[in-house]
Amino acid sequence: MGEDALAAGADRNVFLFFFSGHGTQVVDTSGDEGRGDRYDEAICPWDTGSTVSSVITDDELGGWLAALPANGEVVAILDTCFSGGMADAKDLSVKSIRNPAVPPQAAVRRHFGSGLAQRLAARGTEDIGGTNTVVLMACQEGGLSYETSALGNGVFSFYLVEGRSSLSAYPPADGDRDGLLSAEEEFDYASLKTTTYAKKILHVNQVPRLYDGNPAAETVLIQPPPPAVMAKFTANPTSGPAPLVVSFTDESVGVIESRSWDFGDGNTSEEQNPTHTYASPGTYTVVLTVSGPGGTDEATGSVVVERKKPPKK
To answer: Which CATH architecture is the domain 233-306 placed in?
Structure first.
């Protein structure tokens, strides 16, 4: 499980769980799946063996994710067979219909043999879900997730990575071209690509599914850093006899949240475009310091104040 602090705001975190590997269905011993669905979905870690002691059911995984801090958002990406049943969205009517031509118990027995129900204890109470959760699933419930040597990965995983990878300002999955990449945009991109590749190249059906706990908002996965702040200013005039009135113009670049002028004679200002009067002759170093989300920068300049020339006789 990973934590991506990729969205704006220190008080907002996106917790990302990603798993690509084998998946299966196991007998539902907790009774949470509802009438007509007697199987939990599960992911198979690297050490899964015939005793399936390390299988992680959707109930257990859902409990882990639900225990994360309330001020965070959760994105779970599952590229496994049967992953479409991981998010049990009874209230949102997202759960797909099982294909009666593929009995789920056949897949269970093929992977682990008989006696699975006796070897697997219930470890949770509910599937993955929640109002702060988005779940990207590689296939429909009861369906299979494919991988191919031509792509060097699972098909769904390959297109998820492709969707966020780009040398341009906007990754391919950024459909609205706003510079922000959300989990929902990632799914829209990878889902179409996966379905098309599976049908045209592999000659199989693989239809990814999305559970969105909050359809009214998007969960941002990638937000580019704010542009760097660059301090810059002009002064007019830059020289002349005392008393010299100088107008300063802030031409800084970036998002400026605060600025500070030091006129070099002991006086300061926080105005954007101040005017300052130099009463005494001298050479003064002016410093403008600006700060914002992109950092802090300063610029310097000089003002030369000359002695007032005596009137001509």
So the answer is: Sandwich (2.60)
